[in-house]
Amino acid sequence: MGEVTIKLYGETVQVPEGMTLLELAKKYQEREKHDIVLAYMDTKLCELFKPIQNDCEIRFLTTADEIGYQSYKRSATLLMLKAIDDVMNHSRDFQVRVMYSISNGYYCEIEGLSEGVSQDLLYSIKRRMKELVWADLPIQKESVSTDIAIRRFAAQGMEDKVRLFQYRRVSAANLYRIEHYEDYHYGYMVPSTGYIKCFDLILYSAGFVLQMPTMEEPDTLAPFEAAKKLFKVLKESEDWSTMLGVDTVGALNDVIADGGIGDLMLVQEALQEKKIAEIAERIERERKKIVLIAGPSSSGKTTFSHRLSIQLRAYGMHPHPIALDDYFVNREQTPKDADGRYDFECLEAIDMKQFNEDMSRLLSGERVELPRFNFHTGRREYKGDYTQLDTGDVLVIEGIHGLNPKMTDQLPEESKFKIYISALTSLNIDQHNRISTTDGRLIRRIVRDSRTRGNSAQATISMWNSVRRGEEHYIFPYQEQADVMFNSALLYELSVIKQYAEPLLFAIPHDAAEYQEAKRLLKFLDYFLAVSPEAVPNNSILREFVGGSCFHA
Questions:
Q1: What domains sit in the chain, N to C, each tagged with a CATH number?
Q2: pTM
Q3: Strand runs labelled E in 159-299
Q4: pLDDT of residue 1
């Protein structure tokens, strides 16, 4: 066996041909502050069991990198499922559901328990997880044909995975195993259980939370914060999914294949409209004059504000929709982030002084000329758009900073009604693989930015981390201050939006830094059967992204 030449940490070194990335990582671990869990060989993302066969450039990824951090969370989930299987003596009478993200962890439930999850049961599961960590067992990967995977899932009673893989076009599936426990997971894993050192199990509601660290501090357990309002809206969405019989992608694909997607669309849109009407009734009953709508990027704030305005009119009120984006400072005045890029997510990107002045004048009955921001020129424009409030009028203000007290500090607090909106999908890939709400929003934004701003998918992906940092700092800390939360996710939306997103993602060059993320999203979208957009109502929140909305271009 000969040697191969690799480039690593700016050095060129010779290593034995066939040496694994794990063996190499152990030699260089001291150069990294956090555990090395994955690696790039040239532009290909690899798990550490891969051998080095050719000359290449290698870049290690740790748990402080986005991809490495997600592999840690995925591996911790597999570890938990293995421990539960052991504690339950491999019984098929119990089904674990990894349901949604809350407080830097995953909320889970165990179906089949007569008295629900107890603290004693959690202690037993956690103790078993720690035993598996101390044993440092390898997390083994096996590629099998899709047919074999389906047979194995059926034998283990994993009907959700059977349904999922019946619609898969790929010929093989990657299964992961700890000892004799085997499962399918969407994405790469860390090399062994010994890497999963930081976790906790916390009793919550009818289940528990698998609590984990943050990407910023991957070696420290994040404190658990019970986001009661967020959990309530997630649970409500879960109840809708259960009522409709669509809680996994396989179940959704069944509905599509059986020709029932049209009815599903109408029912889900009706459920959302009912919720919006309830919010409007509360605003009228409490006689609020300022409605503040906030939420992360691509949550559908604009369409929601228009639909809420219609419902407010049905209650005899006269709404005036106002977008905080129209109060962006001129582009050259926009603050820049640590990378030297314009930081459109920060609070200072908005002219707060002018906004508060205009809103105060409107509330006092004055006639005010409102601006419109031109995203192509990067400048605020005034073109004679005058507004004046009358009796029964209400300001409907939407923007990512709507719930930040600093944004509206000059406006009367007693007049405000605060709404938090986000796309909190209750649909899972299967019972053990949840769909990240971040992925859903990113795909929405890729499609919308291409259509309305001429941005490539590569450009949108490249700025996404900056967008998410802004959300962590400026949006999420204020979500629990909302008077009400609204979930804008639609069970069927990814089946519609995939046909718009896929060509944009395929256009990203293989040597681009954003290629791996595009590849991951393409694999994710491949789970879904496609649905024609024709049946999507023209007032749907989805129309804000794919086009054809009755509210805007």
A1: 3-62 (3.10.20.30), 68-226 (3.30.980.10), 229-546 (3.40.50.300)
A2: 0.90
A3: 172-178, 181-184, 200-204, 207-211, 290-294
A4: 65
